[in-house]
Amino acid sequence: MKNYPDQAICGFGANVLSRYMSALRQEVTGVNRGEDIEAIHRMRVASRRMRSALSLFETCFAPKYRNLWRNEIRQVTRALGQARDTDVQIDFLQHFLATLQEIRSRPGINRIILRLRQKRARLQVNVINALNELEKSHALDSLEEQTKTWIVERTAGEPINFSLYNLANKAILEHLQAFLGFEKYISNPEAVAELHAMRIAAKQLRYTLEIFSTLYADELKIPIQTVRTAQEKLGDIHDCDTWASLIPEFLEKERQRIIRFYGHAGFYNMLLPGIASFQQDRLQARNLTYLAFLETWEKWKENDLWNKLIQTIQLPTRLNPGQEFYPSSPPALLNTET
Fold first, then answer.
1. pLDDT tens, 211-265?
2. C-alpha dist (Å) from residue 307 to 173, 180, 199, 208, 281
3. Shortest CA distance to 281 belongs to which of 112, 103, 87, 100?
């Protein structure tokens, strides 16, 4: 017997996808120009949210469509991600450079900035190619066409179907468990890979919470902000870890490049003071950020935030399948730019 898609679930999902698709399309011109680093950021976030939503509502669409959408959007996300990460590194180094008091420390930082800018120029080609491929595939056009068949308009005070709350509960709980599964690693500052994976899990949980946030009025506002903070703090830790692995690799490549050009490594020594200063700065920042994350995590546990979240999402699912649930107040749209 064929299983037909649930109208309530697919209607809700179509509205979510339509909103994210619109956000992505708004940034195409700016991203192609490569002049505004925030356009890259906004489009990257929109593409990530689209992928999260597609995985949640995939049963509403035929496999041939969702596979096309998923593959094309993944390529865009990857290209945007590499460009965005490099933009952030350049921006951070420029701010760090402005704080340096010793002139002898500047050459090293300027050299890293130079190499990152060269890398960013190469990555812009990948970004444009990914956007061109997305356009040629007509993936967004077919997604828009398919979502139109499901989109429904809801009014404030209208009851929400049990099946939609059931999906929300299942999806949020699954991502929450994945996120909390990394808790055993947070007491180990050397668990670099695990803390990075925890950041990714936090991001996926946050996107899922945001997708379903309108079902719960303002009741997910604090959990979303909490997970966002976790994502940001873990992201700061990861950034420091990235610099820790990037700088030795940069130094070796630069030493070899200088020797090939000059025939000796003399100029290489001029780069070392600034880079050593930067390394020390990132090491101290990593330690402080990590300790701050531990302290914040303990406060969240003391406030029993995660169990409160579970109680919130499970309340509507305790109804009988034939019952309908009315949110306590009209849903409010969240700012989902980051």
1. 999 888 889 999 999 999 999 999 999 999 999 999 999 999 999 999 988 888 8
2. 11, 11, 20, 17, 37
3. 100
> CA-to-CA distance for 123 and 80, rounded, in angstroms?
9
Query: Encoding tokens for residue 244?
Result: 């820790």
The conformational region for residue 217 under phi > 0 = left, psi -120 to 50 = alpha, else beta, is left
Burial 133-148 (b: 16+ CB within 10 A, else e): ebeebebbebbbebbe
* 3-state per-residue secondary structure call for the chain: CCCCCCHHHHHHHHHHHHHHHHHHHHCHHHHHHCCCHHHHHHHHHHHHHHHHHHHHCHHHCCHHHHHHHHHHHHHHHHHHHHHHHHHHHHHHHHHHHHHCCCHHHHHHHHHHHHHHHHHHHHHHHHHHHHHHHHHHHCHHHHHHHHHHCCCCCCCCCCCECHHHHHHHHHHHHHHHHHHHCCHHHCCCCCCHHHHHHHHHHHHHHHHHHHHHHHHHCCCCHHHHHHHHHHHHHHHHHHHHHHHHHHHHHHHHHHHHHHHHHHCCCCCHHHHHHHHHHHHHHHHHHHHHHHHHHHHHHHHHHHCCHHHHHHHHHHCHHHCCCCCCECCCCCCCCCCCCC
Spell out the residues 6+ positions from residue 289 whose beta carbon is closer than 8 angstroms to its own.
233, 236, 237, 240
- The confidence band for 6, taking pLDDT boundaries of 50, 70 and 90, is confident
Q: Report yes or no: 215 and 313 within 8 Å, Cβ to Cβ.
A: no
| pTM metric for this prediction | 0.87
- From 77, 76, 86, 72, select the one nearest 123 (Cα to Cα): 86
